[in-house]
Amino acid sequence: MSAIPSRTNRSPLRMNKDVTALIPDFPFHYANYLQHGQGRPLGSVDAANHGQKVLIVGAGIAGLVAAYEAMRMGLHPVVVEASERIGGRLYAKLQGDPATPDKQVLCELGAMRFPVSGKALFHYFRKVGMTENSADFPNPGTAAAISTVVDYQGEKVYYEVDGNPAFPKPQEYVELENQFFDGFLEHYDFAAMEAAMTEGSINQPRIKELWQAILKPAQGTSGDDVSFYSALLENSGWSKAEIDLFGQIGFGTGGWNTDYPNSILELLRVLYTGLDADHQLMFDGSSSLPQRLWSTPPKAFGDSMQYWGEGNTVEALSREVFPDPFHKEVRHIVRQPNGSFRVHITDTKTDQELLFNFASVIYTPHVRILDKLRYSGNPQDLPAMDSLLPLETWEAIMYTHYMQSAKIFAATQRPFWNDPVAGNEQRKMSITLSDRLTRGTYLVDYSASKGTYKGSGIFLSYTWNDDALKFLGDRPEPLPQHVGLCTNLLDNIYPGIDLNERYSTVDPFVEHNWEDQPLYLGAFKMNLPGQYEYQRRIFSQFMSGIDTNQPDRFILAGDDVSWTAGWAEGAVTTAINAVDKLAVCFGGGSLPGNSGPVASWHRLKPVELG
Fold first, then answer.
1. Any idea where the Amine oxidase domain is (predicted)?
2. Which of 74, 299, 435, 460 fits as disulfide partner to 306, beta carbons 3.0 to 4.6 Å?
3. Considering the domain boundaries, does residue 42 fall inside one?
4. Into how many domains does the chain fold?
C-alpha cells in the first residue's frame, strides 16, 4: 500500500541479491525465527495457563497472525472486529458480473503489491498456499506492465521494458535511477547496508553501526531531523527541475513527491530492505490470507498445536465467546488489579454494550483510533484508559502522522490492453503515470489465475496524500463525478479509446478513500522529521514490564506500530512481537535454540535519541 514507487533496473532480483527486510532499527530476522520452528508453535506457555482467553482487537493480518500463533501455543484467542469482514486493509473486493464468475475480478482496495523481501509475510503466504497462484505485479516501468505511458507537462511518452526495442525506456529515466542509487543513496551507505541485509552476508551488528551513524552522526544533523525533500536538495546534485521530474514520475515508475515532506529515515528503511521492489500480485486476493488463518485448522498447513484439538480454528474459538464476532467495537478497556482487563464492547448492530474480562489484550487497529477511545464514554472513565500506557507513549500516539490513499476501480469486459499489435505500434492502453488528477493508473489481468476469478480491471486512479484528498468530496450533478473525471482525463491521453464502452455492465465501479473510513481514518503511518522517538516508543511498547518481571499484558501491534507502516510485513512482524510477549506473560517464552524478539531485545533494540 505504501506510496513509495517501485524501482526497476536496480531491484534486488535483477541484481541477483536475496535481500531480506531486516528493519535497521531492530534488525531481528523474523523469517528465520518463523521457519526455524518447522511447524511447531513459536513459543510455549506454562501448562497452567493453557486456555487463558486473550482478546485480539481487529481482524486484519496483524490480528489474525497473532490469534493463529497464540492458539498454537495453547492460549484461547478471541478476535473481535468492528466491521463486517475479515482483512482490515487487506481488502480484495469482488467486482464484475456475478452471472459470469470467470469474468469477475478482485479489486484490491488496500495493499495490492507484496515485496518478496518481506519474508515474514511470505512465510504465511506460502503456508496457506497463496504463492502458488501469484504473478509479478504490473508496476509502471516493469516487464509485467508490458508498456508504460508517462503523461507529464502536456507531453506523452510511451515505452516498453524487456520487450519491444522499438520503444525503449527514455535514457533520462534510466539516468535518474542510476544517479539516485549510485549518487544520492551513497550519502547514506546504501550499498553497505543492502549488503548487510543480503542472505549469505547478513550482519546485524553492521546494520546497527551504519544506522546509528545516520541517527547520531559524529557531526552534522541527525537523519531524524531531515525531510526527504531537504535531503534531495542537499545530496542529490539535481536541479530543481530534476527534483520536480523525480517527484512527478520518478524513474518512469511513479512519483515520489507525496513522500517529500516525510523523514528521510522513512524512505531509507524501505529502500535498504527492498520493500520498494520485486512485488507480487496475489490472484487469490490479499484478504484470503487472514481469512484462511481465521477459518482453517493448523493441521491443514502442517502446523501443530498445544492443548487444543487438531480441528480447532481461530474462528471456532472466537465464536465460543461471541457467536457473531463482527460489528463488535471495543470502546473502553480497564486494567484490573490482578493484571487482567475489563473490556467494554459495543455491538454496533444492536447498540448493546457487552462487558467481558480477558487475561490479555492485543490491540491491532490504528493507534489513532485508540487515542479517540480514551475520550469515549463517561468522563470519569478517562483515567482508566490513560493508565493503559505511559504518558510519553500516549504523546507518541497523538502525534503519529498518517498518509491518505484513494483508489477508483472499474471492472472491464476483457483485458483489451493486451490485444496483439504490430511491432511498431503502441498498445491501446498502458500503465499510466500522470502529473494530472489520476496520477497512477494500473491495469490488472487475472486470466492466468488458477482460481475462480479470471477477469480484468483498471485502477483509474491510485493516489496518496494531497492527491487522494481531492477525491474526498463529490461534486453535484451535472458536473462529472470522480469516475467521470478520471475517464475524461484518460480518454484525453488515449484518444478514441472510449473507456466507458469497455466497462462491465454490472456494478462496474468502486471508489475507496481510507481517510474517510470511520475505523481507519487514514491509510498508513509515515513519520515526519523529528518523529523517530515517537515511533521508538510505540514500537517498544511490547517490551513494557519485561525488565521488572511484571510484563504488561496490554500489547500494541499493527503496521503503524512497526517501522515500515504501509507494508503488510510490518503488521506481521509486530504480531510476532506480541505473540512472543504473550508467551512471557503466561509463564513461558521462546523455544530452545530459537530466540524470539523479546529475548533478542537488548542485543538489537532501537537507539534512543533522547
1. 61-581
2. 74
3. yes
4. 2
